[in-house]
Design goal:
alpha/beta, Spore Coat Polysaccharide Biosynthesis Protein SpsA, Chain A, three-stranded antiparallel β-sheet, 10 helices, globular, Exostosin-like 2 (chains A, B), glycosyltransferase (chains A, B), metal ion binding (chains A, B), Nucleotide-diphossugar_trans (chains A, B)
Amino acid sequence: RCFHFCKLPGRVMGIRLLRFTSVVIIVLLLVAGALTALLPTIKDDKLPNSRREPKTQSQSALDSFTLIMQTYNRTDLLLKLLNHYQAIPHLHKVIVVWNNIGEKTPEEMWNSLGPHPVPVVFKVQTVNRMRNRLQNFPDLETKAVLMMDDDTLVSAHDLAFAFSVWQQFPEHIVGFVPRKHISTPSGVYSYGSFELQNPGFGNGDQYSMVLIGAAFFHRGYLEDFQQQPEAVYALIDETQNCDDIAMNFLVAKHTGKPSGVFVKPVDIRNLEKDTNSGYSGMWHRAEHLLQRSYCVNKLVNIYDGMPLKYSNIMISQFGFPNYANHKNKM
Amino acid sequence: RCFHFCKLPGRVMGIRLLRFTSVVIIVLLLVAGALTALLPTIKDDKLPNSRREPKTQSQSALDSFTLIMQTYNRTDLLLKLLNHYQAIPHLHKVIVVWNNIGEKTPEEMWNSLGPHPVPVVFKVQTVNRMRNRLQNFPDLETKAVLMMDDDTLVSAHDLAFAFSVWQQFPEHIVGFVPRKHISTPSGVYSYGSFELQNPGFGNGDQYSMVLIGAAFFHRGYLEDFQQQPEAVYALIDETQNCDDIAMNFLVAKHTGKPSGVFVKPVDIRNLEKDTNSGYSGMWHRAEHLLQRSYCVNKLVNIYDGMPLKYSNIMISQFGFPNYANHKNKM
């Protein structure tokens, strides 16, 4: 009703109207602000479970990944690899898990050789544990993690492609090193690569694990890893091995599908021989592979079943490096 | 309350209790039966939209596929191919779309040379149309369709693998022949294969279509195809071409993702030269490729937009035929 205002003379009514309108506008703005504050925050930390389309806009958290590289006794290789990996497209940040207990990190040298394309964080550890790299680092800002061993070089082309594949299979470990387990008539499992017999499901070979030492996976799995039975941590600590097998068990249990998607690398190199430290990596220990078979069987006990599933999907990049790499003679 | 029964002497109470219990049990059974009848029937004819695990038990409708092969003027090739395809694992039935108008089908000869591993149905057509093969045939009992041109031979190994891939990507066209469209500065699209310039999204090439003349897809898309604008049928009939491009548009619109998944064939052969008919297929017409570019632009008009999306995923079979086909020199 305008009765109150309408009775007033024109000028006074004009001022009153103006004040009224101003109050209304301010109230509306306050209400809008309050509503915005009340909007639920989109929590996207949970693991997705469907094939996702790669986004074209650059959104930091969704369109980039964090490299986690654990290092022990091979600082020369670490620095060589940091120079390579710091310039990989879509890299957001590097987290170096420093397993050289009591030794200073190369942070000073790193800073003196700046500027760098991305930030590098050195996480100093108190105990030299294989599973240190599987902590749920608060420094992680991206959905995707790229985990690399400190002696492995994968080309930028391979990584850019594998990252785009991970974006389409975000609930899987998307990486470059496939392995498998096999059943034996005794019911005891054995671990191996393609030199081991095929599991016998149709033609060709199968893999049931993708090793995390050269792979992309969702950060949610680092959160999940913190919730595993104590026996899993004890196993990894006892063997200083098998953290990657444990992760594959975890992912397979979570998805009910094969844990990994294998992307065939064009250019992957092991730089072990190039180190001055003389240290050549855990996998040279005599018992390394036997340990891994042992771990498979122990994990089946701990998880009360074999969750790993087989896959024979091998993904390559269409038309790269050879633009006719799919040509057939038809 | 048990007051009514409790007052009665033991024997009478026993009989009453027994009768009461029996009535209760019968009522419960009736209720359970009614509930079961009321359970919603699971309609699985709709297109799924998530990655599906291959089933290990043999369930006819889910674990097998129907081959649909259209044929015109190449009955010698048809029969040669039928001998090959009739024995492909997981094949449920063959539907031959008989475009030889007025001519008798080879059904008699087929029957005289029985028994055969699977039933073959000859669908006699009244008009020789390219899109005859895209009818929603009532003979279809499986979720999966394998569509093959009548001059294309794909090995059983390739088909078995591609079928297992389709089972993991049931909403896509999973096949052996990738093609693409490209944008030009004028806004006019052009159609081609890998000899055409790359679309320019990062390294390597991309494909935006998988041709249906050698591919698996979900039968739901045949249903969908019946619901398209009249202009689409007119276009296909006018050109006697482009039914496969139209199907890729349909699938891309439905999923919002790349329509196809390319599986690199190990052994795919074009038997055109082997025919006695002298007929060498539509793609030899001078205007064939120009028509296909024309179709891409017409379909963009009809659908008011370009729904095709690019992919660079190339899938091969891990460890087959060469058990070390993924070995790297690391």
